[in-house]
Amino acid sequence: MESFAFFTSSSEECKQIAVALDGAGCCPRCILRFLGENKTTSYRLSSQDIHRTLVPDTNSHQECPCPSCLGILQKYAESDFLNKILHKVQEESYEFCDYQCSLILPVCIGIRQRALFVHLKNKFGAIYCIQESSIPSVKDVWKWSCGMRVGGLLSTQFQSKSDFDILLTFIYPDSDKECSFLLSSFPDVFKKRKQRKYGFETFTRANVAKALNDMTDSQFEDCTTCPLSMPVAECSCEIACTHEPVFVAGRYQKYSRVLSQTPWIVDGKRVMEGSVEELICDPILSTFRPAGEHISPISPEKVMLLSQFSDYSQCFMVFVLPFPCMEILHK
Fold first, then answer.
1. How far apart are CA 197 and CA 220, in angstroms?
2. Shortest CA distance to 42 belongs to which of 134, 140, 114?
3. Fewer CB within 10 Å of terminal CB in the chain, N or C?
4. Half-sphere exposure of 237 (CA within 13 A, CB side)
5. Domains in the chain: how many in total?
6. What residues does the Pus10 N-terminal eukaryotes domain cover (predicted)?
7. What is the pLDDT of residues 212-226, one digit of tens each?
8. Which of 295, 297, 287, 296 is nearest to 319 (CA)?
9. H or E element that contains 33
């Protein structure tokens, strides 16, 4: 364990904590998290290697999802799932220079982490007299573990900020049920939101985090068990790819009074051929291949004076190519 940087330097204490977390059903990467490991390279080791290092005297046979990360750092950090991300990107024919990855996690993960943290404080005392924020988050650990590996599959670089985003939305069917005890503890926050029209979500990451921050450990223990029971249901994951919109602005001269700004169609029939929008957009659309686009004038057309220019802006939504060089746009 010398290569790790844990909350405690005592090998015996680390082993006791690792065994306790393993006994609670935690996955190897969550054991590393709760031991305080902040080195990103440690999480790139396989689950089997981490388990052999931390708890060598036990067998690694986990059939249930981890009670801390709900399996997000288990099956969703393994090669089979990463290949699904690759296939999704290839299916939609995206081209990009680099990529970022965004994760939307079930709200109840905050509650599960707090429950495990309180359990460790009760069991190991002074070692966990720290801020809960000292424990690496599930999001960060997933990115540390999988970011570069997905980049290798995509033959590109993983960045913390990029125009191309792979969004992973994790859905846990029992999330609201596990948050339900907050309704009675904070009625002013959650019951009012539940009674609102238009179907607002009762529990959000922000209001649950605030509620947990306002609760002492003893209040939290009065409301739920520490740690929480093993999850029965599994998370599912939806993969979506998006690219930041591209905005193209410029000027044009209009030499015809009969050329409309946009295609003129009445009762399904075209009134006149051609339009400013089509003349400007069509050549660029063939390059960007967007899912949607919009052109809008910035100032009124000045068709009376040919020396005057009209301004326009154009927005391409959900396009699949990276921003082309200016030479392509000039063509």
1. 30
2. 140
3. C
4. 22
5. 2
6. 66-240
7. 998 999 999 998 889
8. 287
9. helix 28-35
Tell me, yes or no, whether 104 lies in a domain: yes
Q: Which tens digit of pLDDT belongs to each residue from 142-173?
A: 999 999 999 999 999 999 999 899 999 999 99
Q: What is the CA radius of gyration of the chain?
A: 27
Q: What whole-number percentage of the chain has pLDDT above 90?
A: 45
Amino acid at 125: G
For residues 205 and 286, state if they share a domain.
no
Of 243, 270, 293, the residue at which a domain comes to its end is 243
Same domain, 226 and 133: yes
Amino acid residing at 108:
C
pTM value > 0.90: no
Q: Are 318 and 243 in contact (CB under 8 A)?
A: yes
Phi, psi of 214 (to 5 degrees): -85, -10
Cβ atoms 239, 85 nearer than 8 A: yes
Same domain, 227 and 306: no
**Contact between 98 and 159 (Cβ < 8 Å):** yes
Structural domain boundaries, residue 134: 64-243
Most distant CA atoms of the chain, gap in Å: 87
Please indicate, yes or no, whether residues 70 and 214 belong to a single structural domain of this protein.
yes
In a domain, residue 83? The reply is yes
